[in-house]
Amino acid sequence: MKLYRNIIILVVMFLVLGGVLLALKLTLKDEETDFDDDSIITLYNFESTKLTEYTIESEEGTFVFRKKSSNGEYDVEWELVSGGNFPLHHQNVNIVALNAVDLKAYKLIEENPTSLDIYGLDNPYRVTFKLDDGTEKYIEVGSMTPTKEAYYIRISDSNNVYAIYSYKGDLLVATKDELRDKDVFDVYSSDVIKFSLERDGKKVFSAEKDEEIGWQIKEPMQGNADLVKLTTIFDTFVRASANTYVEDNATDLEKYGLDNPKYVIEAATADTKVKLLLGKATEGESVFYARFDGSNEVFTINKSSLSFIDIKPIEVYETLVYTPYIYDVSEVVVNIDGKTIVSQIESDSAKPEEDKFTIDGLDVMSKGKEAENAFRNFYRSLVGIIFSDLEFLDQKPEGTPEITITYTLEIDPGKMVIEFIPKDDKRYYVLENGEYKGKVVKKSVFDEADGVRKNYEKLMEILK
């Protein structure tokens, strides 16, 4: 079965032709195919819109599909009424139907054969379809010809054996895996409002979308989300799909590592949710056994389709320590290197031309645009301090802060004190109003070319 090879061609035609599915015979031709040949034999030529139901009988079982709704020939929703309980890949299911009712052979192989086994028709793959007027027909598909260019088939009301081109047979012979929707979470990534990842029993992160402030990371630390990173994760997850289905109702989940999964991924939209469990890796660590919460059906999924599962918690955060807008701040006091630097700010986002800044009692605005820009750069270096790691402790770090930044705010919480307490000779723990959330900052951040110390020096050179 090469259904997905042909699906790619169908998708291209959908995109190019605005959703109009051209007859596949116009694009798929074996080297020896000639559709202008008078030898082409029309076996079935029914309108697909009249199709109401069809049945597939194969070694995998018997599957009965009924048309549920239709918006034209190519936009059809099917339901599985017998043979299983799995979500359908409606496009694949519809392709089988379309090709069953429009069937042409390129050659009559044998009339009234005495032996069917030489054609693989003693135990064929069979498609039986019903029309709205009660008509019922079937197609039996046997083995391929020795050259692999065609399939042997038989149809209703005839004992003859015909040959149909291999691509046509490929579109008729569908496996159970090809008939089912294998998408892990079939939604638009923009509709996701909750997402979490757990690894080895520990929460890597959980995120939620707030209607007012957007995406927030809830665990392991409350904070603003890196929207680019989250969007990439969501896009990857909604494109992920099962590889193969291993066991319908596994009784020994430990065998697959799914009794105690290594990874747990949860996602939700306003209308639906999913919880995916990943167990043992197989095939050289490139494939995981997986199942959905509440189901013992085991399938495999490629690790490459879930490339985010080994992400570090810090990677999903916006890593700025504290970032108040300048027009929400009236005063900033920085204690650093034994100095106390006091900045007064009067700023209105609606009237930036009326901004007033002073630092250490000096009027910044009186020194012109160069001084104003230097002050803004100094402020940006304060709110631009980034944390480079997350380290969660049982107790709040203790010690004397080497650097303190105190913001007086015109919004809640009114005041924010950021303290940088030495962790070692290269890093600081960060306390926010006395609370340690896990942020760790490199000491070198303050010495960068656009860091706090250098920008303060540049500003003071201009003012003095």
Task: List the main descriptive attributes of the protein structure presented here.
Immunoglobulin-like; elongated; 3 domains; 464 residues; 37% strand; 9-stranded antiparallel beta sheet; DUF4340; alpha+beta; DUF4340 domain-containing protein; disordered N terminus
Structure summarized in a few sentences:
The chain has helices at 3-16, 90-101, 166-172, 176-179, 227-239, 369-383, 452-463, and strands at residues 41-45, 51-58, 61-70, 76-82, 102-105, 107-110, 125-131, 136-144, 150-155, 161-165, 194-199, 202-210, 214-219, 223-224, 245-247, 263-268, 273-282, 287-292, 298-302, 329-336, 339-346, 356-359, 362-363, 389-390, 403-409, 415-422, 427-432, 435-442. By secondary structure, the protein is an alpha+beta fold. It folds into 3 domains: 41-178, Immunoglobulin-like (Sandwich); 189-316, no CATH class; 326-463.
Describe the structure.
By secondary structure, the chain is an alpha+beta fold. It has 3 domains: 41-178, Immunoglobulin-like (Sandwich), CATH 2.60.40; 189-316, no CATH class; 326-463. Helix content is 17%, strand content 37%. It has helices at residues 3-16, 90-101, 166-172, 176-179, 227-239, 369-383, 452-463, and strands at 41-45, 51-58, 61-70, 76-82, 102-105, 107-110, 125-131, 136-144, 150-155, 161-165, 194-199, 202-210, 214-219, 223-224, 245-247, 263-268, 273-282, 287-292, 298-302, 329-336, 339-346, 356-359, 362-363, 389-390, 403-409, 415-422, 427-432, 435-442. A 9-stranded antiparallel sheet has the order 14-13-12-11-16-17-18-19-15, with no helix packed on it. A 9-stranded antiparallel sheet has the order 23-22-21-20-25-26-27-28-24, with helices on one face. Strand 22 and strand 23 (362-363) form a beta hairpin. Helix 6 runs antiparallel to helix 7 (452-463). This is DUF4340 domain-containing protein.
